[in-house]
Amino acid sequence: MAKGSIKKVEGKRSTSWRVIIDLPKGPEGKRRQKSLTYPGMMKKREVEKKLREMLQEIDGGTWIEPQKTTLAEFLESWLQEHEDTVSVATARKYRNVIDCHIVPAIGDIPLQKLGPLDVQRLIEQLKTRGNKKEKGGELSPTTIKYVIRFLRFALKRAVETGLIKKNPTEGAKIPRQERKEIDILSENEIGRLFDLLKGSYIYGPAKVAFHTGARLTEVLGLTWDCVDLEGAKIRIEKAYRYFNDDGEPLFTTPKTKAARRTIGIDPELVAFLKEHRIEQEKARRWSTGGAWASSHDLVFTMGDGSPIIPGALSSLFSQKMKKAGIATTFHGLRHSHVSILIKAGVPITTISGRVGHANPSITHSVYAHLLEGMDDQAVNAFAALMSQAKSKRA
């Protein structure tokens, strides 16, 4: 049974309570003690109550030894432990969340003293001050939700290893995420968009994204060995994100089985890719630079054969669209592709497989507003079939 003692310590300027706890003996049978200090303003019975609670926890095996490790120190060690278990892209995202959002706000708080109010303070700061490290504006509810979900995930490990008793992120009030209206391009806007992009390196990736619904990183990670022009199909097997620390292009494999997919392409896109390949071969032959030698046989590259950086393309695309008065992003091409398929009556399961969603429920959730009118179409189709059946019987 655990034991402890309380002693009042009279200092020159103040008094305090010193609590000595006898801990279970160490591996070599050595005596272990823990000394804790409480302010003298506390009454003795309050200190005695704390001691009783600690002794009960020690006997019950639930006591957690106080430590001075800060949240910042814990997250650093947590990241070192986990970065080899996730993709480089995910590890970099974790690093950004820690360094830019969490540590500047609450990183200096001891891990064991971190409470729900501290987490709520972090949320309020992100809502009003955004990225403190880079002096940015307020963050979107989506980003705030990601930060808190990440913190909850990391602190779950602290609970599992006995560093803390309870996850302080539980019950955090995250700003409600309002569903944004998805950007769907009209026929006129689609025509204007591609007229505007003609002649730029954005044109090809944009065309593939619009005709297939593929994501930007998937389009930029597409290699010629995954393009079957005769069979009119492409295989989505990898995504290109950016350069790694060695200056080499970083390719990642899709996270889910559904994201690795083979999809058909229409005659217009087949014709474009055939012509594009011929032009690319000409550029390769005439180039004097060395980038083509290590181009990884990418379908889309810069003029010198180097990979296209996704973020740079996305930013330039948005700038061009804003200047032209077209309210969309590069990802809007994917949304527009899905919209066209829905309006054409393509089954949601087929659409889900085509765009690489893990299951049709995701597609249904994202594009619910576009599916609202489909019930009317179903009623009309059923009525038409019944009418035809009656006519045949007459």
TrEMBL record:
Keywords for this protein: DNA integration, DNA recombination, DNA-binding
* Statement: the UniProt record of this protein carries the keyword RNA-binding: no
Q: Does the keyword DNA-binding apply?
A: yes
Instruction: Using the record's annotation, list all stretches that form the Tyr recombinase domain.
Output: 180-380
Identify one Pfam family in the record.
Phage_integrase
The UniProt entry, under InterPro entries, shows: CB, DNA_brk_join_enz, Integrase-like_cat_sf, Integrase_catalytic, Integrase_recombinase_N, Integrase_SAM-like_N, Tyrosine_recombinase_XerCD
Query: Core-binding (CB) domain: which residues?
Result: 69-159
Q: What superkingdom heads the lineage?
A: Bacteria
Q: Which PROSITE patterns match?
A: CB, TYR_RECOMBINASE
The molecular function terms in GO held by this entry are: DNA binding
- GO biological process annotation, one example: DNA recombination
Say what the protein does: Site-specific tyrosine recombinase, which acts by catalyzing the cutting and rejoining of the recombining DNA molecules.
Q: Which family does it belong to?
A: Belongs to the 'phage' integrase family.
What's the protein called, per UniProt?
Site-specific integrase
Species assigned in the record: Heliorestis acidaminivorans
